[in-house]
Fold these 2 entries.
Entry 1:
Amino acid sequence: MKFRLLRNATLKLDILGRSVLIDPFFAPKGSRPSFTGRAPNPLVDLPMSPEEILDGVELVVVSHLHADHFDPIAQELVTKHLPLICQPGDEDRIRAHGFSNVTPLVDTVNWQGIRFQRREGSHGLGPVVQKMGSVMGFTMTAKDEPSLYWAGDTVLYPAVEATIVESRPEIIAIHPCGAKWDGDLITMDAAEAVATCRLAPDAVVIATHMEALDHATVSRDDLLKYARNEGIGPQQLLVPQDGDQLTLTAGRNG
């Protein structure tokens, strides 16, 4: 598996010779409103053009409809007939943008030898969840490829812990930027990233959704410093830069 971080939650995965795009967010730097008054979003440009990102893409996954996961530019540029997997309840709004091949991930979807299974997520805890709305994560498995758990925009809570313990993924992608909404944590932070590593000591944990939006409170350097101080080594917690590509293999990663 080739795992390329583009920006924020946007990933491009090459698996079984197929190209999968997750949560396309194509807005130019500073073109979207600020969440906190600190700066317009996104804080950084994409490392390559949307056209380059979309080249060869055969499947799109949209975890939820927040604009930093499926923005108006992506809604226009992504080819409308491509198969698109979304969380249940979002399919009609996505179809309204002209997409004709939309499948809600109610439980599992098998596509070209790759199995997607929906996993629960919580975009914060308590009353803020009503403001954030529903989100999903997913596990992704294929023969001779490493198993991946993409946790998505969620905090660490019992359903995420259960997914890690029960599915024993080899790769876990998390969003530990410490994003806050009205003071409430709505994604993982550094402490929850470390707790994730401890829950899955044999997995490689990859931190994405970093340094792209102005409501984040944890930088890449913050995360790395905290993790190292807590005894989490560089072979377990990876913190790629935008544009970086990782090669991940079943049973051994590097």
Note: The chain has a mean pLDDT of 97.
Entry 2:
Amino acid sequence: MTVELNTVYVDRIAPMRSPSLDETFRMMSDQQASSCIVLYQPDAVELGDVAVELGLHELAVEDSAEGHQRPKLERYGSTLFAVLKPALYNDRREEVAFGEVHAFVGQDFFLAVVQADPRGQHVVPRALQRMSGKPGLVTAGPQAQLWALMDSIVDDYIPVIDGLEEDINQIEDQLFSGVAGVSKRIYELFGEVVDFQRAARPLVYMIENLHRGAEKYHLPVEMQRRFRDVLDHAIRIVERLDTFRQLLQNALTVDSTLAAQKQNDDTKKISGWAAILFAPTLIAAIYGMNFTNMPELRWQWGYPLAVLAMIVFALALFVVFKVKRWF
């Protein structure tokens, strides 16, 4: 386990670095302080020890220890449990990488468990830097740290959206250019957009649920405004993803139509050449039987006439198919 961040707020003022988790828990008990802790990939035992100190619900701890959770927001008494999916667009590989962060928000603590970070590490500490220089947010307590994390993750979605949009524009150009492998790329992009929707869409419902419980759980007005701002951004992200999904579905339809059209053109060509070769083959087959009593078999001009007939029939059919644009 790596402790990425371990700070204590006494009377909800500027944070102080704590030398250890034990010291943090002692200060929380003795001085009625609040804490902000970020753990990177703790095992079940390490997470369980922290959970006992903070009084976390066993079901939430079990989900966090297992990982691979869908984005969600659940409340266990006075503690919120949120699962968030940060994302990063890899421009070199042209694909989207997703992480997984579990946030526990209590009345006097904020605990973030990073199970996967697409940026390598430090996704949560970087997000919490949004609170620096804003004492009003510090006094709002751990809910402000949840806002900072959500706001940072949603803002990081924008470059990912831009990267996907560029890929889709390239797909549209390649569809009618006959570029090999475009079908596979469309399917890959479609899968990435669907995964992105699974990560981003639940954020809308999560923040809406926070608003519905704002009065009951005493969410400050300033925090309500900030969560609404994140909600607006999340809705725009989801709407753009819906548009991307529709565009890719249309691209799949167009690609299937073009493939069927190409197959039909190939069938026409094959059928046309088969018809062209049929007449010469038929004439050659008949005169190749070598019966004694055959018309014009001993005629001087029989052979040249047969060859000429083959050529005329073949050219005539070729002209007909050319006019019909089979070739």
Note: The chain has nine helices and nine strands.
